[in-house]
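hi! just following up on the protien thing from before. the input was this:
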Amino acid sequence: MLKKILCIGDIVGKPGRKAIQQKISDFREEEGIDFVIANGENSASGSGITPKLMSQLLNAGVDVITTGDHIFKNKEVMSCIEDPRLLRPNNYVADASGNGYGIFKMGDDTTIAVINLSGRVFMDPCECPFSDVEKVLAELNGKTNIIIVDMHAEATSEKIAMGWYLDGRVSGIFGTHTHIQTADERVLPSGTAYITDVGMTGPYESILGRKIENVLHKFTTNMPSRFDVASGDVRICGVMIMVDDSNGHARSIERVSIKIED
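and the predicted 3d structure came back as:
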């Protein structure tokens, strides 16, 4: 049986959260989506997440929230970091709080594993994502056929390398962190759906979700500036992946961009 999985890019601030609350439940029903994964590490004023915001996203129709280098920006997160539905990169140091992957039910007896990884190129220090994911795959062996990876990384080369490294061993890999949707979605030769970045969920009349004038001030003067969240041209961006649950191979991957009307 084919399963449809929606992977949503970085949710940025209040505009991104409101978009999820307004659209995802209905979109999920209209498209027959079985499972929703969303990166929520920018949901709290553009950096981090809180227990309240995590609950809002889960109640709006998201099944699992992945994150990245901003996961611990808000100290409030420590009261919900052990919730299995909130993931932080698995290749953080071994004694970091929280979970880097989990196995979840998809509404029937089908299970899905979600793995959260962080890149190392131009990113905060962490363990090697390639050796780390090998350990996770060994632990998942025989437990589920469907495995989806959020590769939260800056360098496109590192994301693409992970795609080829895991081709045929996971169902799909979607890149996050750079906030701009790429046009390289494809199913790799051995059955893994791949895209370098799914884009962000938030205001596109912006510079990566932040007010244009503030970021331009930083670039043109090299002086500090508040990177406040913008508000115009809000969109939900991501991909839908069709997976055969009998073997975990992806059949298709399709970009999603939903414009939110003012």
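The chain has one domain: 2-259.
The chain has a mean pLDDT of 96.
cheers
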